[in-house]
Amino acid sequence: MASAHSGSSSVNNVRMPDTVAQAEAAWLVAITKGDEEQRELMLPNCVIVHGPVGNVHGPERFLSYNASMGPTVEAETSEVMCRERGERAIVTCFQKMRIRRSPDLAPFLVQAVATRVWFSTDEGWRLGHMQLSRRQPPA
Q1: pLDDT over threshold 90, residue 4
Q2: Structural contact between residues 27 and 41, judged by C-beta atoms closer than 8 angstroms
Q3: CB atoms near residue 77 (< 10 Å)
Q4: Are 24 and 109 contacting, i.e. CB atoms less than 8 angstroms apart?
Q5: Which residues on neighbouring strands pair with residue 36, listed in sequence order?
Q6: Can you tell me the distance from the alpha carbon of 135 to that of 121, in angstroms, rounded to the nearest whole number?
Q7: β-sheet bridge partners, residue 113
Q8: Which end of the chain is more exposed for a tag (fewer CB within 10 A), N or C?
């Protein structure tokens, strides 16, 4: 997995991704690190659609919801497709996350189809919209 900070620009000592691929790699690292790492990659007006009932949340509510689920200990993507058009990029992929709901149990596997919309800003690529649609593991 690529480093979340390699080849990134720096603003206010926060290193932001210069490319969409770096932004995606940074996001996978950030969701295993915590709220602050994710928040740094999101635009303040980012909208996230997620959960089994299609919650629509801003960054703070989404981060709070995620924290209530337990820490994500591993995240990976496959079948990544990216469409970059000028100042924005749309990334779709399958995403697997292992969430530790209890220290006594093995991490719980969550699979989702993810769509992320990244925007090029003066600070680098930042997340403006994300939709996670859970999917059942293959039989």
Answers
A1: no
A2: yes
A3: 20
A4: no
A5: none
A6: 32
A7: 94, 133
A8: C
47-64: pLDDT as tens digits: 999 987 889 999 999 999
pLDDT at 83: 96
d(CA 132, CA 137): 15
pLDDT at residue 42 in the model? 97
pLDDT for 2 equals: 33
DSSP state of 71: -
- How far is CA 44 from each of CA 27, 48, 72, rounded to the nearest angstrom? 16, 12, 22
The type of residue at 87 is E
In this predicted structure, what is the pLDDT of residue 138? 63
Query: Which two three-digit tokens encode residue 26?
Result: 């940074």
* 108's tokens: 């719980």
Percent residues over pLDDT 70 in the chain:
86
Contact (CB, 8 A) for 63 and 84 = no
CA pair distance 38, 32, nearest whole angstrom:
9
